[in-house]
């Protein structure tokens, strides 16, 4: 397995494509990308035993964690602890690209 | 605890400052920032039971993982699995800012 991944290569291949991509995964941690088009939403959900972070790479999102609503742009990290409902909507006019980590990784 | 952190606020307060900052931490995962000045090195070390990733936010680094040497710029993710020696040097002329995750978090 290569130890390096360039997110722009993964996202940039087809800017219209909406996708999830896994960068790296071990039993302890999954590191991946989520890319949402304007208006697209990842419905709220929860992981009972997994912590998750979002880190905005591109675009503007509205991230919900529990009762909190965060307007998130590039450089913002948002934490969704285990058991907290969370979801994200692209509220911008360009794609929203998020680096995401889930620990431990989904089975 | 707030669920949001803006890395630019943390790094930008003093651009000359070299530091590590924790963004979020649970027993499962530590998410943080490392900032190195030009020429500065984080010596190679290893975590026997923790996986680690680097994600370059700013600057140019040389990241070593085991026998591999990666020249890493913004957008590149590098994975250092448990047991692999790893370290990083700022080989650029500006600060090197890395988002880092360690799973499980250091005790």
What do you see in this structure?
2 copies of one chain form a homodimer. Helices cover 6% and strands 54% of the residues of chain A. With 107 residues, chain A is mainly β. The first copy, chain A, has a domain at 19-37 and 97-107. Chain A has a 5-stranded antiparallel beta sheet. A 4-stranded antiparallel beta sheet of chain A has the order 4-9-6-7, with no helix packed on it. The longest helix of chain A has 6 residues, at 7-12. Chain A starts with a strand and ends with a strand.
Keywords:
homodimer, 107 residues, mainly beta, 5-stranded antiparallel β-sheet, 10 strands, 54% strand
Write a concise synopsis of the structure shown.
Chain A is mainly β and 107 residues long. Chain A has a domain at 19-37 and 97-107. Chain A has one helix and ten strands.
**Largest interface, C-beta closer than 8 angstroms, per-chain residues:** A-B, 33 and 34 residues
Number of helical stretches of at least 4 residues of chain A: 1
Give the low-confidence spans of chain A: none
How many E-type strands of chain A?
A: 10
Shape of chain A: flat
How does the major sheet of chain A shape up? 5 strands, antiparallel
The structure class of chain A reads: mainly beta
* Average predicted local confidence, pLDDT of chain A: 91
Q: What is the gyration radius of chain A calculated from CA atoms?
A: 13 Å
- One letter per element, helices H and strands E, the order of chain A comes to EHEEEEEEEEE
Head-to-tail CA distance between termini of chain A: 19 Å
Query: Which strand order does the major sheet of chain A show?
Result: 2-3-10-5-8
């Amino acid at each position: 397995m290569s130890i390096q991944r360039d997110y722009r290569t993964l996202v940039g291949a087809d800017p219209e494509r909406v996708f999830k991509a896994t960068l790296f995964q071990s039993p302890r941690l999954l590191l991946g990308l989520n890319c949402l088009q304007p208006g697209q939403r990842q419905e709220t959900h929860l992981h009972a035993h997994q912590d998750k972070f979002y880190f905005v790479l591109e675009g503007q999102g509205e991230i919900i964690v529990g009762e909190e609503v965060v307007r998130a742009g590039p450089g913002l990290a948002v934490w969704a602890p285990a058991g907290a409902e969370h979801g994200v909507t692209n509220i911008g006019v360009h794609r929203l690209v998020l680096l995401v980590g889930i620990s431990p990784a989904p089975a």
